[in-house]
Structure formats: structure tokens, C-alpha cells
Amino acid sequence: AQTVTQSQPEMSVQEAETVTLSCTYDTSESDYYLFWYKQPPSRQMILVIRQEAYKQQNATENRFSVNFQKAAKSFSLKISDSQLGDAAMYFCAYRRGGGGADGLTFGKGTHLIIQP
Amino acid sequence: NAGVTQTPKFQVLKTGQSMTLQCAQDMNHNSMYWYRQDPGMGLRLIYYSASEGTTDKGEVPNGYNVSRLNKREFSLRLESAAPSQTSVYFCASRPDRIGQPQHFGDGTRLSIL
Predict the structure, then answer these.
(1) Which of A28, A101, A113, B113 could form a disulfide with B31 if both were Cys (CB 3.0 to 4.6 A apart)?
(2) Do A106 and B42 touch (CB under 8 A)?
(3) CB count, 10 Å around CB of A43?
(4) Nearest-by-Cβ selection for A45 from B44, B45, B104
């Protein structure tokens, strides 16, 4: 079974600074997808960024980027120019590749605090 | 564009009562999912459905049943609620195209006394 580990229960960063959230995963598959979801206090699950394992290029979405290290099974999220609205729980998630309907395997999350 | 709609948003039950959580999506997705989220935990998969009329167990299916009666709707039933089922429940759906992310509903907070 796949597992996803987020080793930082809580992180704090000053507004406008850069922060990196860690995620490691364990799988025997070579084809898979990785995601970062944001969960603000409103409880919504909001997709931040996704990465296909077959792509070597790291995904980027505006201020959000990932450092995907396939051999190390590491998938960290970097948030640049942190804003107060970035405060939330962040979940790393894994999904096996292929055409099936498999669900996501989530880490336990990192609570990100933005200091004004 | 409603996306994934869950009802109710909040519910309090007594131990032993039954309850059905409703989920509907208007994005014409085949795949649908039910997760639960407990404090300090990420979401865990309860059941999923690849298409109308099919369902499969996820990581934590015990104590739950599901129904996928049509493409839009995927319901989760607790036949005899237990305090251990106190949680926030999320429904999600996913486009058929490989690698696409899941779209989540806003969740149902369920408390069982």
C-alpha cells in the first residue's frame, strides 16, 4: 500500500517570505500523480498544484512550485511571497497512474501559519 | 456551476441511528468518492465508484454502505451510527481524463453522541 508522509505538523513564516513544505511517499509504482491541496478554515479542499511522475520538469503555478525528486520519492511545495490568504492546512496526496478510478492517499497535513 | 454538492452540511446523531449523506455532481464525471477526515489526519478513502452501478471499498469501509444509482449521485449510508464515525465527510468526483485532480464538495460535519 502507498503511504504519504508529511513530517512537519506546523510551519510558520513571515508574510512575503518563502516557505517549503515537505512530503515524502512510498510506492512501488512507476506511473503516478502527486497533488498538493489547500484546506482553509472554511473546510474546502482546493487544488494547489499537481505533478505527473513521468514528467521531469517541476510544476509551477504562480507563487507555488514543487521540487519533485522521483528517486528520493520526495515532493515538496514551495510558496514564494507568502500572503495572509495562504494560511491553511496543506495536504500532499498520491494517486496511482493508469485509467482506474483509484482514490487519493493523503498525508496528515501541515498547518501553515503566516505571520503579518 | 455547482460542482459537487453535499447535503446536509451538519448533522448530529445518537448512537444506533441511521443516516444517509447525499452527494451530487453536475460535471458529468464517472468516478466519485467518499472520504472521511478525522482531527490530525488527512482524508481517508471510504468507498469509490468508477461508474453508475459499480462501487468498491477503500481504506476504511467498515460500518458504511454506498449507492451509485445514477451518474450524478453517490450516497453514503451509516446503518447504525457509532461515536467512532464522528468525522467530517467529503464527497469528490474526477474527470475521466487520466491524471486529472478530484473536485471536492464542502464536506458534512457529522457528530454521533
Answers:
(1) A101
(2) yes
(3) 17
(4) B104
A101 to B31: CB separation less than 8 angstroms, yes or no = yes
pLDDT band at A101 (very low <50, low <70, confident <90, very high): confident
| Contact B5/A at CB under 8 A | no
d(C-alpha A81, C-alpha A59), whole Å: 17
Interchain CB contact of B26 with A (< 8 Å): no
Residue-wise pLDDT tens for chain B (113 aa)? 679 999 999 999 999 999 999 999 999 999 999 999 998 888 999 999 999 999 999 999 999 999 998 999 999 999 999 999 999 999 999 998 888 899 999 999 999 99
CA distance A23 to A49: 13
Nearest to A107 among B42, B107, B109 (CB): B42
All three cell numbers of B14, joined, read 445518537
| Dihedral, B42, B96, A101, A73 alpha carbons, nearest 10 | -50
Of chain B, the end-to-end C-alpha distance in Å amounts to 36
* Residue type at position A48: V
Q: What are the pLDDT digits (tens) for A9-68?
A: 999 999 999 999 999 999 999 899 999 999 999 999 999 999 999 988 999 999 999 999
Q: By the CB < 8 Å criterion, does B64 face chain A?
A: no
